[in-house]
Write a sequence for this structure.
């Protein structure tokens, strides 16, 4: 058997699995500034990327890192950065630029707790709304998450694939527990993994319009240096990429920036359900908390309580339809999260008053243990 | 068949407990063929502060990755022993450094008091291998991972050039563990 058709089993930390996933996806450029609890991603790639002909740069700060990632992507390299809360805040301006100029790239935020430098070594999920709304101006963005090292490996590959397919920055939100848990990761046979590469123009350079409106709303950005010349700007621009003040063109672009992601919600959204068939109460959870929730649901089932679980690896676009479907058959949806109820707001929107939404929140730097969710399930039933 | 076995290694930052946890997890998962997850909890400081690493071993899929009810607790400092012994299982195992831990928590568990740091210095020659001596003791007393798997995992994870020193540390721990077990009978 060739190396490409064999699977390998390794013991990896979530952060290492993320870095390895990036390499599998074809990432060949990393710029960043190390920060706990994400630093192992940078460490791993600083060792591996040069061996693959890629580039690793430790920049002067997070703002510069994000700029370098955008530049590298425009010359055709799949590019990423990794950070945590304070660095994620600094990167927002340039993430907005990438969203506006429609430059594919992956931003990993291994969440810590609190605003500012907060709790560097402790777990939290307090950036889930920031990931969606951290930039000014209307636009959509894709935000993925993971609950294990294996899932982190897979979702990192998916983050690159989605960014290349939809020409957008994609955020991968991990939490300290996932980032720092070491567990088994099965690397699949190389040839079984789907890799998406951004489209290139099919017209000659003189007919090429980078931001031409197509049916799928996704632009085709030629790799710099391949003979196609165009302008890249953070200003609202027309099909050529040059700034415009024409209301009709402005409107078209702003609507398309959200539309290109919203139109493809079904392709992007992924979720799993567990024991939902006869459930009277549901738990909705993501990230490491999904594992505590799974345990709580299993334990409650053993006690004869009809409870099910919905988990997702896609936080944005949010799976409102999935929540509404569940709300029709359960009386309440419990949302455990390591924040003060950030995604519970979205669940609340999703249920359309057809079920109660109850948070289980923890912001003291401790993980939510299964027993805390189990007690809430018992209380609600 | 291991349903769920939880080990917590605790002490202060810099004692190599997180590496110790990774070694146990790798031995259990890769070389013994179980499932294992290692997690950690530490403060913002590089040295000092209470630090812990947890390993959950199971033949089932591991849902919650952190300890729920600890089967075996190692405590190398008084602070960590006091702070992290609250969820030690009834009839669980508590291994403490007898020079550091003077005040034992109350409860129905088996206590093994060993001067682990002193053993590392006096019998192996370096305090830095305290974690590996502790792994030897844990391997013998818990019986949850095989000695062979542990040797392989240690060699895989320790810095190049320190293999011999670490193997000596592990054997020292195994020997001590055997003595403790014999005494227990």
């Amino acid at each position: 058997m060739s190396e490409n058709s064999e699977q390998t089993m390794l013991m990896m930390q979530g952060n290492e699995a993320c870095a390895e996933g990036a390499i599998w996806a074809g990432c060949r450029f990393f710029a960043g500034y190390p920060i706990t609890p994400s630093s192992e991603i940078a460490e791993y790639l600083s060792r591996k990327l040069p061996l693959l002909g890629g580039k690793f740069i430790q920049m002067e700060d997070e703002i510069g890192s994000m700029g370098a990632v955008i530049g590298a992507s425009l010359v055709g390299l799949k590019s990423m950065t990794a950070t945590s809360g304070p660095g994620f805040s600094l990167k927002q301006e340039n993430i907005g630029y990438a969203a506006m100029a429609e430059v594919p790239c992956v931003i990993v935020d291994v969440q810590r707790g609190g605003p500012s430098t907060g709790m560097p070594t402790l777990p939290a999920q307090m950036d889930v709304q920031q990931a969606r709304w951290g930039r000014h101006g209307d636009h959509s963005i894709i935000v993925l998450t993971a609950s294990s090292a294996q899932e982190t490996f897979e979702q990192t590959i998916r983050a690159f694939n989605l960014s290349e397919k939809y020409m957008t920055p994609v955020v991968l939100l991990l939490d300290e527990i996932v980032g720092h848990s070491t567990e088994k990761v099965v690397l699949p046979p190389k040839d079984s993994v789907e890799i998406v590469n951004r489209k290139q123009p099919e017209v000659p350079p003189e007919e090429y319009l980078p931001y031409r409106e197509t049916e799928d709303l996704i632009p085709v950005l030629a790799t710099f240096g391949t003979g196609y010349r165009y302008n890249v700007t953070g200003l609202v621009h027309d099909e050529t990429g040059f700034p415009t003040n024409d209301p009709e063109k402005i409107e078209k672009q702003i609507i398309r920036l959200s539309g290109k992601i919203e139109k493809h919600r079904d392709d992007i959204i992924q979720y799993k359900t567990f024991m939902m068939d006869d459930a009277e109460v549901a738990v909705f959870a993501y990230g490491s908390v999904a594992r505590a929730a799974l345990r709580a649901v299993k334990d409650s089932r053993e006690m004869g309580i009809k409870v099910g679980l919905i988990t997702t690896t896609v936080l944005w676009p949010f799976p409102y339809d999935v929540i509404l479907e569940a709300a029709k058959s359960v009386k309440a949806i419990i949302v455990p999260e390591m924040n003060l109820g950030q995604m519970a707001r979205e669940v609340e929107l999703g249920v359309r008053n057809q079920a109660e939404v109850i948070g289980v929140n923890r912001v003291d730097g401790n993980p939510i243990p299964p027993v805390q969710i189990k007690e809430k399930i018992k209380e609600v039933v | 068949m291991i349903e769920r076995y939880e080990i917590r290694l605790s002490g202060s930052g810099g004692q190599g407990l997180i590496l110790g946890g990774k070694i146990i997890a790798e031995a259990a998962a890769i070389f013994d063929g179980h499932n294992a997850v290692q997690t950690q909890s530490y403060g913002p400081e590089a040295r000092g502060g209470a630090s812990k690493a947890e390993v959950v071993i199971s033949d089932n899929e591991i849902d919650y990755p952190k300890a729920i009810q600890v089967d075996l607790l190692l405590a190398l400092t008084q602070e960590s022993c006091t702070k992290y012994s609250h969820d030690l299982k009834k009839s669980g195992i508590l291994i403490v450094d007898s020079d550091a831990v003077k005040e034992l928590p109350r409860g129905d568990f088996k206590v093994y008091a060993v001067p682990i740091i002193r053993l590392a210095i006096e019998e192996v020659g370096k305090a830095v291998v305290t974690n590996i001596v502790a792994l030897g003791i844990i391997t013998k007393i818990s019986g949850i991972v095989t000695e062979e798997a542990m040797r392989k995992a240690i060699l895989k994870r320790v810095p190049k050039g320190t293999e011999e020193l670490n193997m000596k540390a592990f054997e020292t721990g195994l020997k001590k563990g055997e003595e403790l077990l014999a005494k227990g009978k």
